[in-house]
Description:
Blueprint: H1 17-28, H2 32-41, H3 46-64, E1 71-78, E2 83-90, H4 93-96, H5 99-114, H6 119-124, H7 133-144, E3 149-156, E4 161-172, E5 175-185, H8 191-207, H9 219-234, H10 240-258, H11 273-280, E6 286-294
Antiparallel strand pairs: 1-2, 1-5, 2-3, 4-5, 5-6
Helix pairs in contact: 1-2, 1-3, 2-3, 3-7, 5-7, 9-10
Amino acid sequence: MLNFQKKKKINWINMSDIEKVKQLREATGAGFKDCNLAVKESGGDLDKAIEILRVKGISKASKKMSRDAMEGVVATSGDVNKTSIIELNCETDFVAKNDDFVSFAKELSELNNHNDSNLEKLNKSSMANGKTIEDNLVALIAKMGEKITIGRVKTFNHSGTKNFNYLHTIVKDNLSKLAVVVSLETKDVSDTIKSFGKQLAMHVAASNPLALDSASIDKDVLQKEQDLITEELKNSGKPEEIAEKISLGKIKKFKEENALLSQAWVMEPKKKVQDILKELSITDLKIKDFYRLKIGE
Length: 297
């Protein structure tokens, strides 16, 4: 992360411009071109040059925010009782794998869990270097030269539940391109629950359900699907009565395929998720919540 705090005074007078640019890069982490311009603008005074870069960094960050940021990482943090997930976006996969970006994302995820995914509190939180997340984000944008934004967030902290996660395409440690958290309500602490929790998270990653059951699917999503089906059948030339039956069948299938409980179980496709739940024979077991977060979606 960039550090724009003033450094110990150094005698700049006998330094060449190249040496000053090098010293400025080491002090701020900014690029050669920016440092060179700042040295010239400040008349060789590196304390002024540091201030110039700080101000320009903020200006650059605001200009970059109009661009698309569809790459990045998803970070998970916490434990079985409380788990949080957060998305940090950037423009390229190259930046997503950069050490500074990765370090920021990891510290960000821990602070997110501490703040229960409250973005307002999170942005004002202090990081290890004493600066707020907002200020560190501006500095990171200036250094990376890309739009970087904090995206979707969620914390699982339900009473009487246990959380399980699955990471796909891991970038490093708790950072990935796709992450899933599932929350199971039960008093059971057996290995069976742990195994099912992990498998269920993998299932959600692969099958991408829209809701827990068909009744919970967003009404706008269902209406959009119904409109597509109606338009498709209108052009098929089928009699209205037959078209109506086909329409009902298609929307029913759509609900089954997109509701978690009625989806085919990835590990054994002839069975549904609700069948697996019954087979476990754990009377108080319920799927409380789940969340699937994929970069770029």
